[in-house]
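Final report, closing paragraph on structural work. Over the funding period we assembled a curated collection of sequence-structure pairs, and we close with a single example.
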Amino acid sequence: ELALKYSEQSQNLFTIANALNIRADMFINAGKYKDAEADMKKAIETRKLIGDPLYIQSDLAQLSAFYASIG
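Its predicted structure, as stored:
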């Protein structure tokens, strides 16, 4: 939570996206799938603002693997 808070305060999009993906993993492990999905989608939108297609593709792959794992 603190990493995301400080990243948002500094408006560092790269670390915001990373923090969201890390928190999404924590939500998945806790069984909070709606929260995890929301964080992953927000991370993808943040990556689009950055404009790095490699990271966008990686985040989309993470989201698709999530969907595959929950059915």
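DSSP finds four helices and no strands in the chain. The chain has a mean pLDDT of 95. We thank the funder for supporting this effort.
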